[in-house]
Each structure stands twice: as C-alpha cells, then as structure tokens.
Design brief:
- The protein is of the alpha+beta class and 703 residues long.
- Helices cover 39% and strands 16% of the residues.
- It has 20 helices and 23 strands.
Length: 703
C-alpha cells in the first residue's frame, strides 16, 4: 500500500470545486418523497471490511468493543446535531439503549438502530424547519432588547419542544436581522428565508441510505483518530478528482457545518490561493455568476449543489459572499470575485524575493523563499524527464539566484503549507544539512525505519544565516522539515506552534478486497498506520514544532490544530537516532529574543498586529449576540471605527497619510508583520555571525 502524507485538514465528506462545463445556474430541487432509510447488504459487507482493517492495521490496534461503541455513539450524535439545535434530551436518552451495541452491529449485524436514530433526527429537523417557516408569517420586532445564544455546543439538550421553539424563534429573528442589516425589506427577507428553510427541508428528503451509512462510518473512523475516514463511492470519486489536480474551479475543498458551507482547505496553485483572500474556516453564504449576477443564498444547501453552483468553465468569474473565520453570525459579510481556472502546478512552485533591512548605516539583504506545498511531478519523473518539477529542485535554484544577488540571510516561509510529498521534505532538509537522518517512522507493528537525506554526498546548498517561518497551518511535511532544521541547530524557527499532524495514512480501495464488488462500489477507507518522529525521538504528532521565537497570531491554536481534536493520537517518544548537530543555538536564541522584544515595543506594525489580535479574541469569546437593531448597528459602527482608528494610528507612527474613510480599508493591502519580524530577527542573526563566525554545521551519522 502507498503511504500518504496528507495535508492537515479534517477528513470529512468533502467536495472539491472542480470540473469544467457543468451547469452554473442554481439547481432546481423538485419536490420529493422522503426515501425510506435502511441498511442494505452492501453496508454490512463494508462494516465487516472496515472492522477487519481497523483491528489489523490501524496504529492504535483498537479493540472494537463496548468502550469503542460508547465513543462511536457520542461521535455519531455529535455528527448529527453538534450545536444541539434539533434533538431533545428525551431523544438522546432513548438512544442510550444502543450505546454498547454498535460494535456488534458494525461487525456482523444489521445497522437498523443507526438508521432509526437518524430517522428521529430527521423528524426533529422537519419540526424545527416547519416552525421556522411559520415564524416568517409575522415581521419580528427588532426594537426589543434580547439576545441570541448561538453557540450551544456545551449547553444541555433542550428538555421540551417549547424550549426548542424559543431557541428557534431567536435563531429565525437573528437570520432576519442579519438580512435587515444588509438593507433588505421585510418582504425580501421573507422570500430569502423561506427559500433557505424550504431548501433545507428538501435536502433532508433527498438524503440517501448511503449518506446515513457514510455519516455513521465516519463517526466510527474518527473515534480512532481525526485522519481516518470512510468515503462512499460517490465521494471517493470526488477525492480522485481532487488528487488529480486536473480540474477547473477555484481551488478549495469544503464541508457542511451547521447548515453553512465552510472552507476546509485552500489548494496551492488554484485561483483562491493566488487571490489570497479566501481562508480556511471562512463560510460561504451566497454565490453569484459573473461580475453582475444575482447572489444566490446557499445556507442550508446540500454540499454537492453548492459545489455545482461554484463550478464552471475556465476564465469565468464566480463571486462568493463570505462570513469570515471567527465572525459572529450576522456580522457584516464580504464579497470576493474569483476567476475559475485550472489548478496549475507552476503556481504551486516556490517563489523568492528580497527584503532590505537598514541597520547601523547598512542595508542588509534577506532572501525569502515561499514554499506553499511539498510538490513533485511524479508523472514527468516516471517518463524519464530530468527536468521534472519538485520543491527541492526549485528551492535549490532559487537559493543560487538569491546568492548571486548577495543575500545576507535566508528565510524559508512555510506559513499555511499543509504538507505534501514526504520525499520532498527529506530532500529539502538535505539542502541545509550535510547528510544524515531527517525523520523516523514507526508503523502499526512497532517497526521503526529512518529516512535520511537522499543526497549521499555531504554537501549543502546554503550555509548562511537561516530562519524558518511557520504558523498553525504549517503541517505534516512542513513540520518534518522545520523539526530537522531545529534539531540540527541549523537555523531558527520563528512564528507559531505548528499544526501537530505527525501521522501517516494508507488509502484502501475496498473493492479490491472482495471477489465480486457491488455494482455501486464499496468506497474507500483512509486509515492511520504510522507516526513520524524527529531525529531526537520526539513525535511531531499532537504538539507540532514549537518555534524558537514565538510571534503572536490571529490563528487561534485552541480552535485549530491536532491538539484540538479529542481523538488525536498522543505525543510520545522513541529512541534518538544517531546524528550530529551544529553548535547549540540556545544562547543565540536568547539574544535574538531579547533584541526582538525591545524592537517590537516601538514597532507600529507589530503593535497594530497585537491590537487586531485582541479585537479578534474578544469577538471569539462571545457566545451571544443582540437581537436589537440599534444595538447591532451601533456595534457594527464601533467595529468599523475601531478598525479605521487602528490603521490610522499605525500610519501616523510611520508618518503616512491617514485614510479618510472605512471604504479605503477594503482595498488596503496591509503589512506582512510576521515576515517583516522574521527578517528583522534574521538580520540580528546575520550581524552576530559576522561578528563571530560559527563552526561549520554538520550532520554526519556517528559510527
């Protein structure tokens, strides 16, 4: 089986914005009669296969027993109603009779109780949506002072229908107020929300038995760890499309979360990545075709219907209305325009630039190489093309070009790099160490293997001052590279604690394991079968790589990262492998940290970053929002004024002309504070090295 070093993202039912020449008009959903949901023989066969693979091959060697069954029950209920908006406490209590039976069902018995639980959930959804539609008969009074508690994940289940009615009355009122704040009249608000709620009802009626089964099997797989998953035949095909990188679209993968379409991943080289505005955890609330097309509300849509709406021919424009990551429900939304195109390998390629830092009467040149992913063109390589594209080859070429310009230091920028090919992570590390081990792998049988710098000749492409810039979205292969640089004391890691994705997965096509595959296929299983370890023996799993010098970030590490997932495999250690690092950097890092702390106190851009983070953290801490029109308008105006004041304070400190109004903020390209700070820190390091030349960095294996 082929080992897959996946980029760090939640393995869920997803869809990639792909395929040209598909309809770009809103799908017409005909009235349907709800399908009777029940397990089929194929599901039982899949359950048996998945159970066998889990017991034999998963890294945890988890027993499929009552304890696992209990965990699966909790995760299945969470998958159905994570925000506790539909089910009653009595429903959840009734499900308890199945808590210790799910392990037997998935192994050898019909899964009827799983479908029975879903039927209860679907009935409750119908009740809620019918109640919501009834609320639209009367215009809400937005002058009443009351609040809506939108985050119910940690709250008790509602005890009565009346309690749910009150929750949903406020939800509908908040939906209406959000549209009213966008200057829509009540009749238009009625129309938008009626379509939204009715569409959600139809979506529930269109659910197939395979959808229910896939939801349950993912609850089963995610109980083991966040990266194991099951994909139905239909979603297996979507996965194949994603991995092929041969499609038209915007270059993003999505999932449904609480009726919203949420961005999970931005694919390097795609239109969204090139534009740079769309970010993970942004929610798409409406879609429009072309520069002037009407926005179509997509809240409550089926995921594949939203994908179909966003897909389209190359070089055409699609506009997305977004609720940005961390924004409160009903906050002012932004609209972005993207030109559909093919994800291009060359757009994934590493890029370089030079930042000049004036210091002590001299300009210091810091080279920057941005590495968006760890890529390798295996097709060209297999065809014997010596000029195949790869991260390592591109970075090596860029280093040569930068050194010709006389750089004084080099930054490898791995921010938002979710991973890629393991071979490129080890090869790239080899550009900065003479030779030696880069990473260790322990498989599910306990066998430990070591992956070395693939270049057998002890040589480096660059031996000058080096910094690696990372953030919370730096994951997987990025963490392997950053850890190697840190362990060999070859450079300084700057930024935020990385994601913590230190596991390796195998992909199993289940059709290959039965004599006569079902005509509809059995789908595929992704299973975690190993963990990665640093040369020191410490795992990158769960903890990631801690920076030597930390920088504040808008990315909330309590919401993003492996450690957030309660089923994540733990951090642990194995034996250190033999390697020889350079001179320890602890004293150097202490000096760099002290200089950074002093400098940043008077840096307007750095203080601007801190102020912005404080505002974001305040917003994240909120669990409720006002349903009073005046209060919401005042809050919006206050936030806009605060953003404008913050930007103008920065500009005044830098002796720049102030902005006259908030509209100018929309088109303003702000400073890259993290990169600027990294360049300043690296300049300190270059000055220190010039004063005292360090010993040659080596990485030979001790014998």
């Amino acid at each position: 089986m082929r080992n897959i070093l996946t980029s760090a993202r939640k393995r869920v039912i997803f869809a990639v914005l792909a395929i040209a020449s598909l309809p770009v008009t809103a799908p017409i959903l005909a009235d349907t009669v709800s399908e009777e949901l029940a397990p089929v023989a194929r599901h039982e066969k899949i359950g048996q296969l998945v159970t066998e693979f889990i017991q034999k091959s998963h890294y945890r060697h988890a027993a499929v027993d009552d304890e696992l069954s209990s965990d699966v029950m909790d995760r299945y209920i969470e998958a159905l109603d994570n925000n506790r908006m539909y089910l009653l406490a009595s429903d959840v209590a009734a499900f308890e009779q199945y808590r210790y039976l799910l392990d037997d069902m998935v192994r050898s018995e019909p899964l009827n109780p799983v479908f029975d639980m879903f039927d209860v959930y679907r009935s409750r959804v119908r009740e809620r949506l019918e109640f919501a539609l009834a609320q639209l008969e009367t215009e809400p009074d937005f002058s009443i002072k009351e609040s809506y508690e939108f985050d119910r994940e940690e709250l008790p289940w509602a005890e009565t229908t009346e309690e749910l009615d009150e929750i949903w009355r406020k939800r509908v009122k908040n939906d209406a107020l959000s549209l009213a704040l966008a200057e829509k009249e009540w009749t238009e608000i009625q129309e938008v929300l009626e379509k939204r709620y009715s569409r959600f009802l139809k979506r529930m009626d269109q659910i197939k038995s395979d959808d229910v089964f896939e939801t349950f099997m993912n609850a089963f797989a995610h109980t083991l760890d966040p990266h194991s998953s099951y994909l139905s035949p239909r979603n297996s095909e979507e996965y194949r499309i994603q991995m092929s990188l041969s499609y038209f679209g915007i270059g993003a993968s999505l999932q449904i979360e609480d009726d919203y379409v949420m961005v999970i991943n931005i694919i390097p080289g795609g239109p969204a990545a090139i534009d740079g505005v769309l970010q993970p955890k942004d929610k798409i609330t409406a879609v429009a075709q072309g520069e002037d097309g009407e926005m179509v509300d997509v809240i409550g849509w089926r995921l594949d219907d939203v994908v179909q709406l966003i897909r389209g021919p190359a070089d055409t424009v699609v506009r997305l209305q977004l609720m940005t990551a961390g924004a409160l429900p009903g906050a002012e939304e932004k609209v972005i325009s993207l030109t559909r195109n093919q994800v291009k390998l060359e757009e994934q390629a590493a890029k370089s630039k030079v930042i000049n830092i004036p210091r002590d009467g001299r300009d210091w040149s810091m080279g920057v190489i941005e590495v968006p992913s760890f890529y390798r063109d295996y097709r060209a390589l297999s065809n014997g093309d010596k000029d195949y594209t790869s991260t390592t080859k591109d970075v090596k070429r860029l280093i040569g070009e930068l050194e010709e310009q006389g750089i004084d230091g080099l930054i490898i920028d791995l921010r938002n790099n979710g991973g890629g090919h393991l071979t490129e992570a080890t090869a790239l590390s080899g550009l900065f160490i003479d030779n030696g081990p880069v990473v260790q792998l322990r498989n599910s049988n306990g066998r430990i293997s070591r992956l070395d710098d693939p270049d057998p000749v002890p040589r480096v492409a660059y031996n000058g001052p080096l910094a690696v810039l990372v953030n919370r979205y730096s994951a997987s292969a990025s963490e392997i590279f950053a850890a190697a640089i840190q362990d060999y004391a070859r450079g300084v890691i700057i930024g935020q604690q990385t994601f913590g994705k230190g596991t390796v997965q195998n992909l199993y096509s289940l059709d290959q394991y039965v004599r006569r595959p079902d005509d509809e296929g059995l789908g595929q299983l992704t299973l975690t079968i190993g963990k990665y370890y640093r040369v020191t023996g410490e795992s990158t799993q769960h903890r990631g790589v801690d920076p030597d010098i930390a920088l504040p970030s808008h990315i909330d590490s309590t919401q993003v990262g492996e450690s957030v997932r309660d089923s994540a495999l733990p951090w642990d250690t194995i034996r250190t492998t033999e390697f020889r690092a350079g001179e320890p950097l602890e004293t150097t890092i202490d000096s760099l940290t002290a200089s950074h702390a002093i400098r940043s106190k008077d840096d307007p851009d750095f203080q601007f970053l801190l102020d912005g983070i404080r505002d974001v953290e305040e917003a994240r801490a909120r669990k409720t929002m006002s349903l009073n029109m005046e209060e919401r308008l005042a809050e919006r105006e206050e936030n806009i004024a605060k953003s404008l004041d913050r930007e103008n304070a920065r500009r005044a400190a830098l002796q720049l002309e102030p902005l006259e109004n908030a509209e100018e903020l929309e088109t303003l390209e702000g400073p890259d504070v993290h990169l600027d700070q990294a360049a300043a820190i690296l300049t300190d390091l270059a000055i220190m090295r010039e004063v005292k030349a360090p010993p040659t960095q080596t990485a030979r294996i001790e014998r």
